[in-house]
Give the backbone structure.
Amino acid sequence: MRALLVRDLSLSVRAGGGFGLALAFFLIVIALVPFAVGPATTTLSLIAPGILWLGALLACLLSLDRILALDWEDGSLDLLATAPIPMEGVAAIKALAHWVTTGLPLTLAAPGLGVLLNLAPEGFLWLTLSLAVGTPALSAIGTFGAALTVGVRRGGLLLSLIVLPLYVPVLILGSEVARRGAAGMETETALALLGALTLGSLAAMPFAAAAAIRINLR
Amino acid sequence: MSLWEYANPRRFMAASGAVLPWISGLAAVLVALGLAWGFFGTPDDYRQGSTVKIFYLHVPAAMIAINAWLMMLVASLIWLIRRHHVSALAAKAAAPVGLTMTLVTLVTGAIWGQPMWGTWWEWDPRLTSFLILGLFYLGYLALWEAIDDPDAAADLTSVLCLVGSVFAILSRYALVFWNQGLHQGASLSLDKEQNVADVFWWPAMVTLAGFVCLFVALVLLRTRTEIRARRLKAVVARARMS
């Protein structure tokens, strides 16, 4: 399992792996927001927590089809199916590798981009914390979506259509934490619910993803 | 004699062919009767005037929209556990009906909301969760369309239906947390002595029964079409082989 994790990480970091694309996309989206809504700092700081969460979610979504598509095309997924680790383990490792290369950098970059959007000073801690707690769920759910659509040619749009409704609860609770934190309100309930959602997704989603991969490999 | 005998497509076609005209007729009569009774036979509400009568379309459509997903969930489970093809096709057949009912609910709700709340749309938990339910139906249908192999498509959409059900419920409660609503509470629930006055209750029940019959008739019809399409494909494949 460790070998698989190291392989996935090095594949995504080396040339052509697309590491950093999600981060660049996040930066561009955030930079475009003031052009769309106007440069008034009060407006920007009002919408900053939600926009940052939405930008991170879209950046995460963009890199989902890389989780399994390349392994599917060159046949390594068939080899993994015959490997001694269970398919559930493969799905969990894939989700973890996706989080390390996408969710974690997005979480670390978010406070910097918060400065661009004039995020309230109280909000930085809560934004980072909510992204750190919420993005693993995005990766786990996204792996399931990628597993469903891996057999479909050019399934990128289909993947978005399937995964975005599944992202709704995470987005609601995550941006609620960031919004309440930025407004100086209590955040514990929302943060606890978000944590529960992440833990539940991490526990259940590898099984659903593994089932979908097995069906596609049949 | 058990329910599982109708998992045989031939038995299912015979039984559903015999039942379909009756249930369609019953649906037409009940919906027409309930709507006519509701529109012309009940008094106006003292506050909402005659706009309250859109209730007779709005509530049954909403109930079918939710319960169609529930039916798809049960059919998907039957497919995953017992591998009856009719069940998978019934789940596929119910999805467009559910999506249409979701749209009917949203549109009638907007038409009702405009004079009552002064707005076509409001980000209220109930309204928003119906919008999200519509998105779930769209994703489910898109997945069916995208996959060529019928068995793999049935399997993958069933898994999506199971996971989607969990996330639809999670979204519903996350939305309640997110925004307190403008929508009134449930009009028809089982645990109350009397929900609405009897003059409104009876036409609503007739329309609801009519919508249930309509749903059953449409799902049977669409399932029969799917089975025929599947048979046609088999015939074509056989002709090409020989």
